[in-house]
Amino acid sequence: xxxxxxxxxxxxxxxxxxxxxxxxxxxxxxxxxxxxxxxxxxxxxxxxxxxxxxxxxxxxxxxxxxxxxxxxxxxxxxxxxxxxxxxxxxxxxxxxxxxxxxxxxxxxxxxxxxxxxxxxxxxxxxxxxxxxxxxxxxxxxxxxxxxxxxxxxxxxxxxxxxxxxxxxxxxxxxxxxxxxxxxxxxxxxxxxxxxxxxxxxxxxxxxxxxxxxxxxxxxxxxxxxxxxxxxxxxxxxxxxxxxxx
Amino acid sequence: xxxxxxxxxxxxxxxxxxxxxxxxxxxxxxxxxxxxxxxxxxxxxxxxxxxxxxxxxxxxxxxxxxxxxxxxxxxxxxxxxxxxxxxxxxxxxxxxxxxxxxxxxxxxxxxxxxxxxxxxxxxxxxxxxxxxxxxxxxxxxxxxxxxxxxxxxxxxxxxxxxxxxxxxxxxxxxxxxxxxxxxxxxxxxxxxxxxxxxxxxxxxxxxxxxxxxxxxxxxxxxxxxxxxxxxxxxxxxxxxxxxxx
Amino acid sequence: xxxxxxxxxxxxxxxxxxxxxxxxxxxxxxxxxxxxxxxxxxxxxxxxxxxxxxxxxxxxxxxxxxxxxxxxxxxxxxxxxxxxxxxxxxxxxxxxxxxxxxxxxxxxxxxxxxxxxxxxxxxxxxxxxxxxxxxxxxxxxxxxxxxxxxxxxxxxxxxxxxxxxxxxxxxxxxxxxxxxxxxxxxxxxxxxxxxxxxxxxxxxxxxxxxxxxxxxxxxxxxxxxxxxxxxxxxxxxxxxxxxxx
Amino acid sequence: xxxxxxxxxxxxxxxxxxxxxxxxxxxxxxxxxxxxxxxxxxxxxxxxxxxxxxxxxxxxxxxxxxxxxxxxxxxxxxxxxxxxxxxxxxxxxxxxxxxxxxxxxxxxxxxxxxxxxxxxxxxxxxxxxxxxxxxxxxxxxxxxxxxxxxxxxxxxxxxxxxxxxxxxxxxxxxxxxxxxxxxxxxxxxxxxxxxxxxxxxxxxxxxxxxxxxxxxxxxxxxxxxxxxxxxxxxxxxxxxxxxxx
Lengths: 245, 245, 245, 245
What we know:
The structure is a homotetramer.
Chain A (H helix, E strand, L loop, with lengths): L9 E7 L3 H4 L3 H4 L3 H13 L2 E7 L9 H5 L3 E5 L9 H12 L3 E5 L6 H7 L6 E13 L13 E11 L9 E8 L4 E10 L2 E6 L12 H14 L11 E2 L5
Parallel strand pairs in A: 1-2, 1-3, 3-4, 4-9
Antiparallel strand pairs in A: 5-6, 5-7, 7-8, 8-9
């Protein structure tokens, strides 16, 4: 298993369904290079990443053993086609996260099989898709994921997501949103699972140009850096153990 | 040490500064029997409590050894005079919490010595006192403290408290507020400290009639019940230990 | 949906594979009425429970919609046949936990489908089945689950379970074990998932008479009481939400 | 306020009482350059640190405003003279931690004023000073603090520390010890407080050569790296906030 060395680049695989861009009105206008393209651009401009983008309709959804085993951090965007992701691929990504790979789940990825598998809950929530003002407040200043973010930032038009968000109590909640309509949402959350780090970051509806927003890009870049295992984790031993040292 | 028995009443001591009611315009109008009086009334109407109210200006701030040792749950409201609470009394209440007593800290009690002692942080926050609409969203349905509360409730006029709220990551966040001005706040939080339970519940500015609101009263009643140690805790042994069983 | 009322009994369903008792040498000697029988006896002797026992080989594994919907807390013992539990039944129990039902998972139940589903991790661990002395130390005095337990207790012969135990960081770790061979294990852990409470309690290998031990029984009884939702949880609303109050 | 830049060294201040080395038999033999000297040596050999050592008997206990403000991570060893540390200095270190400085508290530092201040609890525990074998088990593989540590390591002779350890539930428990006598202890724990990271690491009694052990040194080096704020944290704003963006 090859891992990112501290001196090298973080190997990121951006996973996107990639279908809305072809079928849903307005999405290709907002994201002419695909949502994956905008995310990859954000990482490449920040520097220090080796970025690969893969799509649902690629063979094995773009997540062959080789790809997964050579990924330090995965970024996940899905929305309308979660059910088409094969269980075998979900198993593979799940195993890799528990072995140390980071995963950054975005927006409607809350309903992806891999996120629900990692959380153990429904990951359900309230929503309203009318383009409302969202204010994101920092609730853990000093956390690496909010590096360079002031005490809050504003997105002018976004889909509303509202509580209750059915996830396990986050080990760290770093951003909480309020929406024009008065709802709130834990928009930035982090958990450890096995040897891996899991981040959920809310913004990014397909019909709004959210992934060009500099604050949103900064949080994503920071989250990928934070979630990266910078070294080969020790072998974890399970099973029968002889007595002694 | 006498403790509440399951079959008996929960012995609650409501602590209030009790000075705003005498000196600050409008407070006596909102709370003719004092803030402590309104809180005591809420508990008494709910039933199952033996309620005592004490004030800053009472001898030992009303918190003699006898009072503290016969309290199952303390409710704390303070605002302008935190600095006048003697360290010795804070020590006494702190010891009692670690031994199992519950404590429910309300609103501006976030800056009380006892809460800052228990948290180990500044407990600072943002605020704006202009009477704004507050919506409180339930973020842990099923938790005993939000029993009987729908998925949200509204207070028409309250002081705004905004994040960052400098407390340790809550072990459970059960309510998050949004305010008219767009700010958010973790308004219902719980922690264990030693053998005791600590609850922070945000609403209750002295110039608004918040403590007559049925939802607010319900949360306070639930919080006191949840924080109650219903039995004598086992003796906790520290110090030198001989080998063997 | 009918729920336990505070004045009534807690409705417990004890689930057991029930096969070792028939096929594995020594198990029927240790548990002539089955492991489920010993567990039911412990609850019945403590009082306040309405106990039902069901087995893997019952129709629907004993977990029909009716049974699951009328259970406040489930106790789960499985070991050699986890793979035979139908996914549909796991889905049903999982939904019920997220809706508020408590679940107390015992010993080798760490590898059950329902526990792994709730945790989102492998739940793997080290083990050695040689009958070693286990000392269980209380790490959260005052917690209702260790009510009546001194600062530690000893089991003379048990299977060893050793760390790393691949579960999410417990929200509360109330017991940690050391074994004769020098290993340690987080033997008592609790988490919230949705509106439900999840407890893992380690002891109880099928060839040792562990479930007759008074301390072990006390922890199980306490855990069932703690995990019980004593009231109808509010309806949790998800999905599209209109603006306004 | 000057902070460590990613490209530079981590500025570490090792604080030691420095009295046992002069007065207690055997300590100067175990630590001819003082406990602080052994700790500084470990960091310097690992590289990437700019290490300063200060003692209780230095002016301001070696913790002037200048020293504290130019420290990224503090390492704290104290035992017999916690009470002599001035409150004003504790306030200063406490403020700096909440502003982002890391602190790694070692062994008997559990009873230091700064650690108890940060935890909000007594930080009490059981102990026995007879030189017992300690086995430390990794309970969060993949965590940067246990990088390079196998699934466990052994210290041949150490003071026993036993549970209950009266601290808030750790946000991450990365090591749990078992001792020859059968006790257990959460030996590696981490918390966030404000913008700062707090680590407790158990080993290191003054009469044993523990701080020469390669595994112990590795954990300390890793902990200092993990606790370092590698960048200037954003200004945290508190107090009255005007409406608007």
